[in-house]
């Protein structure tokens, strides 16, 4: 978005406001980025940072309050809450990463197939994608887990299957627009095979754009995972997971509200971080996205 | 009908509402058939043996003979297509089998739980519509000014809040500390407040943002500038010239909102001991209760499709352009 364009279309006061809001956006995006970095750091270093085992039961010290030994206290089985939160970050990020990889693969496969094949294949694939776009994500994910049986693997598959459609559409549009470029046409004329054209001219730029776009849904996906785990459809009990921690502490809400507040805050903070990041990405890409769709 | 329509634009170019409804209703059985077939095949190809599950849930030792008996009893020794045929035949007579857990007919069981969920979703939907319009109009009327920034900040937090955590926080504040509202249970209006808010915060945030964007967009169009030139007051412009157009995207989005609200209800029911379908379904997923899972999926498909049909019909009724048969220029100066 060029500055001349903006000052032309708006008065100087609103231009100033716009500049200000843009600067705010950059700041909030940076905050989001920092939070994500902290989260990833904590997840990677969890065993180093904490002297405790997240699953070590210590009934003698159950429900101890915040102290120098246990910064956030201990839970109903005497496990250190902060340690469990840090190991929970590992699981949450790992799950989201797995979902991303799966969405990336499905979106790339179906989108490029539709874009390259065109015609009837394209029509059917995109009609399928439209169907998935209208399905209510959470209920569908629940039904899929019903089919696959509870477990973290099922959660990953279910969330990925309910979120690939939009990316497939984007990839399809990208493939179609790149195919019309001169250099691609030139390489086709030089006798390059379809696969070679796709691999050398389309895959790199599509992958890069998709990785950026994938940040848009991260927060949403994380909420899904947390809610499904909260229902007990994800990991089995001893594993430290934020949603499960809240579910475990529900009986203690009258006496130990902290056990519910901390894990929830962890979910909230990480989703906020991803959403701040994605808002920044959306602002940067908005003109590009609009161009792509029409 | 629009005044801008030329005399040539007769009523026949618009599909009548009853035909639209009939066309969509006719597709529902086909959809149900596809969904049921997919579910059936996936459930039976998936891991686990229904006969073993059945025995485990009824507390019978899985001896070889018992497994064989149950397998025959449940018709699991037949080929898959025959099993599906049998299931379909029974389902057409509204017999969805008996639950492995409770041993009672599945349909009766689900209909027993359904009203509580539907009430909750309906109340949450009303809350969503009222608050998203309110917040959206406030934000859209003062773009890039304080009210707009406040609403956008609130909406941003709203999409980042896990609804089940919000429910616990509200229970903590309003039930345990302030003792204003009941912490759980299903009953009078006061029982609806916390669950309905917990479910609808996400959809309110999404729809308020949507309405804000749409208001700002419509406010920049030519017919609105013309209304200003004619000297219409801001409130009149909003009511008569901006809102009717700006609300249309919200109408489409409310179909999606219903799906989100149902999903939210399933989670929140667990916290408030709400006697709804969600808790029953989660139980069935844990225990791999096949008949319940089949019936639950179909019922949810039906509820969701009917709700969306309702939304689409309202949309088509308000805005006849969506049921135009032939493509032509949109009546009214829509293009900015």
Outline:
The complex is a heterodimer of chains A (294) and B (336). Chain A is mostly helical and 294 residues long. Helices cover 75% and strands 0% of the residues of chain A.
Give the helix/strand layout.
The complex is a heterodimer of chains A (294) and B (336).
Chain A: H1 3-9, H2 12-49, H3 81-117, H4 119-134, H5 137-148, H6 152-161, H7 165-179, H8 182-189, H9 194-214, H10 218-230, H11 242-249, H12 258-293
Chain B: H1 17-45, H2 50-58, H3 64-73, H4 80-92, H5 106-141, H6 146-160, H7 163-177, H8 189-219, H9 222-229, H10 234-271, H11 277-287, H12 290-318
Helix pairs in contact in B: 1-12, 2-3, 5-6, 5-8, 5-10, 6-8, 7-8, 7-10, 8-10, 9-10, 10-11, 10-12, 11-12
| Number of beta-strand segments of chain B | 0
Please state the overall shape of chain A, judged from the principal axes of the Cα atoms: elongated
The strand count of chain A comes to 0
Kindly report how far apart the N and C termini of chain A lie.
17 Å
Largest interface: A-B, 43 and 45 residues
Helical content class of chain A: over 70%
User: What is the N-to-C succession of helices and strands of chain B?
Assistant: HHHHHHHHHHHH
Structural class of chain B: mainly alpha
Rg of chain A from C-alpha positions? 23 Å
Order of helices and strands of chain A: HHHHHHHHHHHH
- Give the amount of beta strand of chain A, in percent: under 5%
Main β-sheet of chain A, in a few words? none
Percent of residues in helices of chain B: over 70%
Number of helices of chain B: 12
Q: What is the average per-residue confidence, as pLDDT of chain B, rounded to a whole number?
A: 84
Shape descriptor of chain B:
flat
Q: Given the structure, what is the number of helices of chain A?
A: 12
Could you describe the largest sheet of chain B, including whether it forms a barrel?
A: none
The secondary structure category of chain A is: mainly alpha
Oligomer: heterodimer
